[in-house]
């Protein structure tokens, strides 16, 4: 059976297993002892890919798909006012933290870290290589102030910002719904807005940087997937794979599919882009041209 | 042989899958009429406006009434007779619940079902209500009958938490069923500990979670007081109905197409690959009881 480790012991073991990097000690330092009268109630626990399931069960796969390194969690209580959980995930690279955060983002909000979502019972944000979630269980309705105070403490303790993946900068800004941007490097997330299918049509893996985004053009809500490959050959292979497997050998740049929506696909350099769910060919062409100009 | 991957185009083009795929992947309406008049799988949706009070407390009397109404509609029998067809005095009964702390199987439902199982003649010492640790539970290890009850919710990796998925604790290492976004969860129902033993499935839709956020995939903001139970013998039909409910709610809330991500593939494959039951809404007779406002399906 896998052990649930207390936070200091887990850190010591991770140091030992990973060559004593100081990065893991940083996680430990990010946890406040007390916030607004809420105090740590246990030694805390840390998890790796081997036992993250014990903490968040099937949800662990989301983090593992973003090259998760480790996570630590700490519970805070104040009398019988419920329970606050502070979870800090180390995703190794800022782009992965941004990617995980994209799954929770519904609106743009930069009040905490490099982007946050603030709910009545939770504050979630990303900063540098960390994805941070502060959630409350059976707490009073006025808990949000405490959650925000805790979030600000952690953000200040991280004291560093991370760079977004280059592929994001290639998205055309016109008509972009910025809150929809979802970065990923596992093909499971290619269906986030529109179900393509189960196959890894574009050969997406941890060496590729892929992004999905929504575009509103008049009444047409379209989607764009832009993928940056390590080299031109892999980009050519990605487009060829998509056209072979999904478009069934179709070589036309613009295709009208069974659902009566238009899809356009192209490759330029080490990038492949697909625009889809367009009601008209003209809209698909406009969006595809706009991204090609930026590549 | 590796099964062929599912795709949007295949689902739209292949008439065999069009109805199920349309319902589970694209939120398309079921056909209005069944031309073939084949027998359908019965699923009961029962709702009661007062089962939860303003403070979020569940009324145990109404909960019992709801499960009674559902079982009567499902079997076409009076409740006391109906339960005697579901379990017999010699049975060893495992009531498989779900303890996920944000949205557990309500104790009021567990006790309502236990009451009816006891009244059907099963000895108290032969009943266990449990989720985690069932592989160390003598009742579950020797069970002759299972009753499966859990809340419906979206899920980061399997798309949805369902009755089918609720048997994952029958595996020593649940993560072994995670590949391909939990595609083959239906195989859990063919394990020696489970095969042919399930007498009733209850998908709890009192406060369903229709969208996930954060590491635990939970925020109260994405739940709503639907105040329903979805009940049936066929777990696939029950889950398919639950998936349609979540998709309708997502459409209503977001005001735009927002597919489950990942999709509820395991429900689709439970029908088309594993033949555990039917996910096709055209083959499901959905009996709707009780509170009508905001029923969505």
Descriptors for this entry?
heterodimer, A: 295 residues, alpha+beta, Protein Transport Mog1p, Chain A, 2 domains, nine-stranded antiparallel sheet, six-stranded antiparallel sheet, 15 strands, disordered N terminus, B: 297 residues, alpha/beta, Rossmann fold
Q: How is the secondary structure organized here?
A:
The complex is a heterodimer of chains A (295) and B (297).
Chain A: E1 5-6, H1 7-18, H2 23-29, E2 34-35, E3 38-40, E4 45-47, H3 52-56, H4 60-64, E5 70-77, E6 83-90, H5 94-102, E7 116-119, E8 122-127, E9 130-137, H6 144-158, H7 166-169, E10 176-184, E11 209-217, E12 220-228, H8 232-245, E13 254-256, E14 262-268, E15 271-278, H9 281-294
Antiparallel strand pairs in A: 1-4, 2-3, 3-5, 4-5, 5-6, 6-9, 7-8, 8-9, 10-11, 11-12, 12-15, 13-14, 14-15
Chain B: H1 8-13, H2 15-24, E1 41-47, H3 60-75, H4 79-86, E2 93-96, H5 107-119, E3 127-130, H6 138-141, E4 145-155, E5 159-161, H7 179-182, E6 198-209, E7 228-232, H8 235-254, H9 265-272, E8 284-290
Parallel strand pairs in B: 1-8, 2-3, 2-4, 4-6
Antiparallel strand pairs in B: 1-7, 4-5, 6-7
Helix content of chain B: 25-40%
Number of strands of chain A: 15
State the helix count of chain A: 9
N-to-C SSE series of chain B? Answer: HHEHHEHEHEEHEEHHE
- Mind summarizing the main beta sheet of chain A? 9 strands, antiparallel
Class from secondary-structure proportions of chain A: alpha+beta
β content of chain B, as a range?
15-25%
CATH topology of chain B: Rossmann fold
* Structure class of chain B: alpha/beta
Characterise this structure.
Chain A is built from nine helices and 15 strands. Chain A has 295 residues and is α+β, with helices and mostly antiparallel strands. In chain A, strand 7 and strand 8 form a beta hairpin. The radius of gyration of chain A is 21 Å and the shape is elongated. The model of chain A is unreliable at 1-5 and 11-24 (pLDDT under 50). Chain B has a single domain, classed as Rossmann fold (3-Layer(aba) Sandwich). Chain B is built from nine helices and eight strands. In chain B, helix 3 crosses helix 5. Chain B is globular.
């Amino acid at each position: 059976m896998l052990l649930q480790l207390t936070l200091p012991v887990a850190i010591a073991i991770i140091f030992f297993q990973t060559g004593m990097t100081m990065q893991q000690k940083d996680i430990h330092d990010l946890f406040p002892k007390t916030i607004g009268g809420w105090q740590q109630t246990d030694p805390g626990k840390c998890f790796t890919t081997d036992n993250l399931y014990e903490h968040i069960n099937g949800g662990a796969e989301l983090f593992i798909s973003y090259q998760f390194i480790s996570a630590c969690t700490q519970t805070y209580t104040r009398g019988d006012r419920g329970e606050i959980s502070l979870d800090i995930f180390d995703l190794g690279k800022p782009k992965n933290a941004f990617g995980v955060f994209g799954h929770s983002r519904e609106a743009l909000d930069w009040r905490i870290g490099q982007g946050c979502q603030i709910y009545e019972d939770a504050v979630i944000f990303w900063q540098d290589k960390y994805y941070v979630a502060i959630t409350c269980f059976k707490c009073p309705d006025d808990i949000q102030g405490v959650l925000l105070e805790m979030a600000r403490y952690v953000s200040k303790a991280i004291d560093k910002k991370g760079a977004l993946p280059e592929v994001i900068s290639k998205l055309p800004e016109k008509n972009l719904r910025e809150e929809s941007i979802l970065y990923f490097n596992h093909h499971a997330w290619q269906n986030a807005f529109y179900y393509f299918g189960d196959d890894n049509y574009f050969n997406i893996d941890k060496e590729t940087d892929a992004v999905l985004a929504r575009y509103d053009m008049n009444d047409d809500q379209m989607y764009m997937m832009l993928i940056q490959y390590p080299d031109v050959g892999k980009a050519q292979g990605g487009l060829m794979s998509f056209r072979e497997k999904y478009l069934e050998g179709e070589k036309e740049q613009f295709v009208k599919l069974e659902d009566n929506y238009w899809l356009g696909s192209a490759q330029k350099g080490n990038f492949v882009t697909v625009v889809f769910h367009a009601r008209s060919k003209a809209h698909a062409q406009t969006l595809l041209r706009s991204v090609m100009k930026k590549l | 042989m590796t099964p062929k991957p599912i795709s949007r185009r295949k689902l739209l083009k292949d008439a065999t899958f069009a109805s199920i795929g349309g319902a589970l992947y694209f939120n398309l309406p079921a056909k209005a009429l069944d031309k073939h008049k084949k027998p359908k799988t019965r699923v009961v949706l029962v709702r009661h406006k007062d089962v939860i009070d303003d403070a979020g407390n569940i009324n145990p009397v109404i909960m019992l009434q709801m499960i009674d109404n559902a079982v009567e509609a499902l079997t076409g029998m009076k409740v006391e007779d109906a339960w005697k067809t579901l379990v017999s005095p010699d049975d060893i009964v495992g009531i498989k619940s779900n303890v996920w702390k944000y949205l557990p199987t309500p104790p009021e439902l567990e006790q309502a079902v236990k009451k009816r199982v006891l009244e059907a003649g099963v000895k108290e010492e032969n009943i266990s209500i449990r989720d985690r640790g069932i592989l160390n539970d003598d009742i579950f290890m020797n069970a002759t009958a299972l009753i499966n009850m859990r809340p419906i919710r979206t899920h980061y990796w399997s798309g949805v938490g369902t009755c089918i998925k609720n048997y994952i604790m029958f595996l020593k290492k649940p993560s072994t069923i995670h590949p391909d976004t939990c595609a083959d969860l239906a195989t859990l129902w063919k394990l020696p500990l489970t095969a042919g033993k399930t007498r009733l499935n209850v998908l709890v839709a009192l406060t369903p979670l229709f969208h996930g956020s954060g590491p635990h995939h939970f925020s109260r903001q994405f739940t709503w007081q639907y105040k329903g139970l979805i009940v049936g013998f066929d777990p696939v039909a029950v889950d398919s109905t639950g998936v349609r409910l979540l998709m309708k709610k997502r459409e209503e809330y977001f005001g735009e197409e927002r597919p489950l991500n990942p999709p509820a593939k395991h429900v689709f494959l439970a029908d088309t690959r594993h033949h555990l039951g039917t996910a096709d809404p055209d083959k499901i007779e959905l009996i709707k009881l009780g509170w009508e406002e905001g029923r969505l399906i």
